[in-house]
Amino acid sequence: MTPDTSGFDTPLVLRGPLREPRQMLADQEYGGHASIHDDRMAEQLGFRAGPIEGPTHFSLFPPLLARLWGRAWFERGCISAHYQNMVIEGESVRAFAEVPPPGATVTRVWAEKADGTPVLEASASLGPAHGPTLLEQRMARLAPPGRLVILEDLHVGLKGAADERVRMDPDQHMGALYPFTLNQKLAKITENSPWYSDASASPWGRPIIPLEMISVLAEYSNRQAKFPVKGPAVGLFADQEIRLIDGPLFVGQDYLIRREIVLLSESKRTESYWVRADIFDADGRTLRAQVLLNHATLKQSFAGYDDARAARERA
User: Fold this and answer.
1) Over pLDDT 90: what percentage of the chain?
2) What is the pLDDT of residues 8-27, one digit of tens each?
3) CATH homologous superfamily for 13-314?
4) DSSP assignments along 218-261, one per residue
5) What is the CA radius of gyration of the chain?
6) What is the torsion angle, in degrees rounded to the nearest 10, for the CA atoms of residue 49, residue 53, residue 54 and residue 58?
């Protein structure tokens, strides 16, 4: 018999186990130089060590969201996250999800370190009617940026230079940005599933791309967009949303990506360009998923930033 809690409005929370995510980007090349995930580069920029990439933590959530919404979440789910604090390999992280009322299709999720330090906050929802996601609300509150330096040549509405043709095979090396394969990731992923590798186990008859690896599929070809970002400068992921529209996305299938800059913003330490990557079937007709990413470039990593900014503000 299913317990009846309808007489209470007490918030209930699903909690996952503590996990230790692995660092797989230490050898990442970003814009021709080491990335923030390299320990030495991270230390030069004032961080303790090279952090684990933010979407790695997305793998903590599918077991919780599948408990809430079943396999539909892998077909029409959306996670919309603001990254709060970096995680270094060896630290433990746990995912949480509020249990929504019966029939509700949106809830709050988050991740914390073992000591309670917040890692990310997010909304999770089931489409097609997602309502305003956490990042849509966050973007609406951001003030216009000042005189940008690193992103001076960008503008909202700028589209990628060309359609990008992508796929993810089990043993396909994903390039300089992601120096590993899907099978190598599955050997270290915090929450594995036979759905990611065994066609006979998958409800869709084919292996599906794990949630965190949708980020890889969407980003490994991003240099083809040729957005005129000045450099060298070091970037990081500050906000990210993965939205499945007609999913899941499958291992070994061709897709086509079209990119567009949808927002420019800045903080005290960063200049940011927010890019939406639309993932279509290979013929470019059926939209399967969207990935929204805030590429935050660190001002202090760009040589002569303060002088260049002062000159622009005087002009």
Assistant:
1) 81
2) 788 899 999 999 999 888 66
3) Hotdog Thioesterase (3.10.129.10)
4) HHTTGGGG-----SS--EEEEEEEEEESS---BTT--EEEEEEE
5) 20
6) -130
- Rounded distance, CA 25 to CA 107, Å? 31
Tokens found for residue 283: 């013929």
DSSP state of 223: G
The domain locations on the chain are 13-314
pLDDT grade for 5, boundaries at 50, 70 and 90: low
- Average pLDDT of 50-66? 92
**315 or 30, which is more confident?**
315
d(CA 241, CA 251): 20
Q: Where are the alpha helices (DSSP H) in the chain?
A: 39-44, 62-69, 72-76, 134-141, 182-186, 211-219, 305-314
CB-hemisphere CA count at 13 Å for 137?
A: 11
Element containing residue 26 per DSSP (H, E): none
The helix, strand and coil proportions of the chain, stated in percent and rounded to the nearest 5, come to 20, 30, 50
Three-state secondary-structure class, residue 16: coil
